[in-house]
Amino acid sequence: MARLTAFPAFHKVSGRTVLIVGSGAAAAAKARLLGETEAQLLIVAEDPSGELLADAARVGAELRRVRFESGHLDGVALAFAATEDEAEDHRVAAAARAVRVPVNVVDRPELCDFTTPAIVNRAPLAVAIGTDGAAPVLARHVRARIEAMLAPELGRLTTLAESLRAVVANVLPIGEARRRFWAKLFDGPVAARALSGDAAAARAEAIRMMSAEPDVSGYVWLVGAGPGAVDLLTLRAQRILQEADVIVHDALVPDDVIAMGRRDARRVSVGKRKGAHEATQAEIGEILVREAKAGQRVVRLKGGDPLVFGRAGEEMAALAAAGVPHEIVPGVTAAFAAAAAARAPLTLRGLSSSLVFATGHDLDGRTLPDWAGLALGGATVAVYMGRSVAGAVAERLAEAGLASDTPVAAVENASRTDETIFTGTLRDLPALAERGDVTGPVLILIGRALAEAQALGAAPIVPETARRTSAA
Ligand code: SAH
């Protein structure tokens, strides 16, 4: 194993003075970094820049507008030379070393007693990443990845653990029982509650876990999987997928998104797959409740956003009725992916100031949908589940008085590798339902704002062949 030239350690600075010498950007960067700690910051700056003044004020640092002298090192825990002037940095480093104050000199590893890591701050939890000074940019890359892995609220869990230490020491014998308790604490319903911000419930659950009969109630997350592209999953969805024991998903969620889950998690498909049994909404509710009651942490993965035509309402009602704790994780809804694909604004100053999420599915042939009026008023309409009823949608809107040359964009498989964009007008829309080559999920956007679409590689809604036939 290669050996490290430096030993990573956490230096206590709470209530102690940390000195930063310098007036410019390097000093300001250090002020921001140290501002994440409880250290008392002393900044010695002969000629502070505006940036440094602002950062110093923001982190509550004391700023002295004088030249550095060794007296500034009195009682200092750590010193940073950030003057961006070689001779001056040397002078600071020598003075610090003379009084045995550990010193860091910005961009001069050879003069440093210690280097500063890239930090992921989930106080009181911290992750420090260093490369022995060899590749700070790499350290920042690693940091970005760790940032994505750790919930912003992870500190709450650490705080909870800290608050439980004394109780645990009293109640649980050292060894296996205690170890098991902690493992369960960080990876179970207690963690889910602490992370969701309910500290009291988390603590109550933890105390219950210590007693002879632990409560094994699970947890359910209703998670939006986004429109299909794996990297449109939210960071939160990714993290929760790593935690879940069971993943209950629709057919609309692509395999590579489902694959983001823990390898050993159980996958349950409840969606429409040709030939397979499609679970009813009531059955889905029962599955979620049953798994949670068995102590499982369940992700209910839904295409797009769970609260947009996702029937999350019924599932939340079933969970609430059974007393199963649950939360919602939003996702990128199909309308946003389709608009992005067509590079079309959904709202446009002066032209379209509202956006309607509508479905083409419940048009019963007679009544005008209530959103037709909104479209007339200039709203952009995003029609979900509209492919097979595109003709009826167009007809109802035309009846309502919407101009037949109103721009339309329809996006099939938005955000996926097989994405296809069609553009045209309301007059063309019925042709969409007649095309045999459009079989994936389609989102239809209708409205004046679509005239601004910068769609690249879009095909006409009415295929060329059909045009020729109708012209003949
Ligand atoms: N909750 C989902 C919508 C579920 S309804 C969401 O927020 O996106 C299913 C409909 O969503 C489909 O009929 C289609 O109209 C639309 N849809 C879902 N994914 C899509 C995609 N990748 N491209 C185009 N439309 C999509």
TrEMBL record:
Pathway: Porphyrin-containing compound metabolism; siroheme biosynthesis; sirohydrochlorin from precorrin-2: step 1/1; Porphyrin-containing compound metabolism; siroheme biosynthesis; precorrin-2 from uroporphyrinogen III: step 1/1
Family indicated by similarity: Belongs to the precorrin methyltransferase family.
Gene3D superfamilies found in the cross-reference section: Cobalt-precorrin-4 Transmethylase, Domain 1 (3.40.1010.10), Methyltransferase, Cobalt-precorrin-4 Transmethylase, Domain 2 (3.30.950.10), NAD(P)-binding Rossmann-like Domain (3.40.50.720), Sirohaem synthase, dimerisation domain (1.10.8.210), Siroheme synthase, domain 2 (3.30.160.110)
Domain Siroheme synthase central residue range list: 124-149
Single GO molecular function: uroporphyrin-III C-methyltransferase activity
Protein name: Uroporphyrinogen-III C-methyltransferase
Domain Sirohaem synthase dimerisation: 154-208
InterPro entries in alphabetical order: 4pyrrol_Mease (IPR000878), 4pyrrol_Methylase_sf (IPR035996), 4pyrrole_Mease_sub1 (IPR014777), 4pyrrole_Mease_sub2 (IPR014776), CobA/CysG_C (IPR006366), NAD(P)-bd_dom_sf (IPR036291), Siro_Cobalamin_biosynth (IPR050161), Sirohaem_synt_dimer_dom_sf (IPR037115)
Keyword hit for Lyase: yes
Pfam families: CysG_dimeriser, NAD_binding_7, Sirohm_synth_M, TP_methylase
Top EC group: transferase
Keyword Repressor: no
Catalysed reaction, written as an equation: precorrin-2 + NAD(+) = sirohydrochlorin + NADH + 2 H(+)
Residue span(s) of domain Tetrapyrrole methylase: 220-429
Keyword annotations from UniProtKB, A to Z: Cobalamin biosynthesis, Lyase, Methyltransferase, Multifunctional enzyme, NAD, Oxidoreductase, Porphyrin biosynthesis, S-adenosyl-L-methionine, Transferase
Enzyme Commission numbers on file: 2.1.1.107
Species this chain originates from: Chelatococcus sambhunathii
Domain of life according to the entry: Bacteria
GO biological process: methylation
